[in-house]
Write a structure and sequence with these properties.
Elements lengths: L6 E6 L2 E6 L2 E7 L5 E7 L3 H4 L9 H23 L9 H26 L10 H24 L5 H18 L6 H4 L10 H16 L7 H10 L1 H17 L3 H17 L5 H12 L4 H8 L1
Helix pairs in contact: 2-3, 2-9, 3-4, 3-8, 4-7, 5-11, 7-9, 7-10, 9-10
Length: 293
C-alpha cells in the first residue's frame, strides 16, 4: 500500500535525524557500538495556527522548525558520540541560531551585494546589477559547498547523509527496511536540504532582480526581509518535484541532485542500520509492526 507519511531527515555526528508525522528521532552510534535513539514529539506552530499550513507559508515554518530541530539533533549526537559533555540549553540554542543567521547573511547577502560594485563598469542597469549579485551569491554558495566537501572530518557525516537518503527511498518504495534493501537505492534525493538551498539561490536571483538598486544597507535589508518569500516559493518547488514525475519539475531539481554528489557519500552497512533505527522510531505503530512481519 502507499505510504502516507512524508519523511525528511538530516545527517548528524555518527548518526541520522528523521522527522515524520508528529515525531522527530535522532539515532546515534555510540563509541561502544550501541545505537541510541532519542525520540521527541513535534509541537509544530502550524498545528496551532492552521493557516500556516497553506502553500508558501508552510515552507517558512518548516525551514525554521527544521533549523531548530537540526541544531538540537547535532547537539545530542555530539554528546552521544563523546564530543561534548552536555547538550545545548535553550538559551545556547537560540544564540547558536542567531549567529548562524548572521553568518549566513554576511556570507550570502552582504558580501555578494557589496561586491557588485566591481561590475558597475559593465552596466548601470539595476536589473543587470541584481542579476550579477544573484550569480555572485550562487558562486559563493557553490564554493562553500565544495570547500566543506573536501574536509576529511566531515566525510563520515556525508556518509550518514547518504544513508539517510537511501533509507527514505527504501521506505517510499514500500520495501522492508533492511540493510540489504536500503543499499540498493541511490543516495541522491530530490527533497534534500542541499537541493532546497540551491533552489533558494536560484529563486532569489529572479525575486531580487526587479527591486531596483538602492543603497547597500537597503539592499541587504530587502534581501533579509524577503527571505521568507524566497523560502516559501523554493519549498513548493521542492515539494512538487518530490511528488511528481513531471519532466519539467524533475529538470528544475536536477542541479540540486548533481550537487548532492558533493554532500553525500556511499554509506557503510552499520551507518544504514543507524538510519533505519531513526526512521522506524518515527513510523506509526502499524507500520512498525508490518516492517517486523
Amino acid at each position: 500500500m502507499d505510504k502516507p507519511l512524508t519523511v525528511g531527515g538530516q545527517a548528524v555526528i555518527e548518526g541520522v535525524m528523521m522527522r515524520g508525522g508528529n515525531k522527530v528521532a535522532t539515532a546515534v552510534r555510540e563509541p561502544n557500538g550501541k545505537i541510541t535513539v532519542d525520540v521527541k514529539d513535534i509541537n509544530s506552530l502550524s498545528d496551532r495556527f492552521p493557516i500556516l499550513k497553506k502553500p508558501f507559508l508552510r515552507g517558512v515554518v518548516t525551514l525554521c522548525e527544521s533549523l531548530t530541530m537540526g541544531i538540537k539533533a547535532l547537539s545530542f549526537s555530539a554528546k552521544m558520540a563523546g564530543d561534548e559533555d552536555e547538550e545545548l540549553t535553550d538559551k545556547e540554542l537560540y544564540i547558536t541560531i542567531f549567529f548562524a543567521f548572521v553568518l549566513a547573511a554576511l556570507l550570502f547577502v552582504a558580501i555578494p551585494t557589496g561586491a557588485v560594485k566591481l561590475f558597475h563598469g559593465l552596466s548601470e542597469d539595476p536589473v543587470m546589477l541584481n542579476l550579477f549579485e544573484g550569480f555572485l551569491r550562487l558562486l559563493v554558495f557553490l564554493i562553500y559547498i565544495f570547500a566543506i566537501s573536501r574536509m576529511k572530518d566531515i566525510e563520515r557525516v556525508f556518509k550518514y547523509h547518504g544513508a539517510e537518503h537511501k533509507t527514505i527511498f527504501c521506505y517510499e518504495a514500500n520495501k522492508p527496511l533492511t540493510v540489504e534493501n536500503v543499499q540498493q537505492f541511490g543516495r541522491l534525493h530530490p527533497r534534500c536540504g542541499t537541493a532546497f538551498l540551491l533552489i533558494v539561490m536560484l529563486v532569489s536571483i529572479f525575486v531580487f532582480a526587479f527591486l531596483g538598486w538602492p543603497d547597500l544597507w537597503l539592499r541587504i535589508l530587502s534581501r533579509v526581509l524577503l527571505l521568507p518569500v524566497v523560502a516559501g516559493i523554493s519549498y513548493e518547488i521542492i515539494r512538487f518535484a518530490g511528488r511528481t514525475q513531471n519532466k519539467m519539475a524533475r529538470l528544475a531539481v536536477l542541479p540540486g541532485l548533481w550537487l548532492q554528489y558533493l554532500t553525500t557519500r556511499e554509506p557503510e552497512d552499520d551507518m544504514v542500520e543507524v538510519a533505519i533505527a531513526s526512521l522506524k522510531a518515527v513510523l506509526p505503530e502499524e507500520e512498525i509492526l508490518s516492517q517486523a512481519v
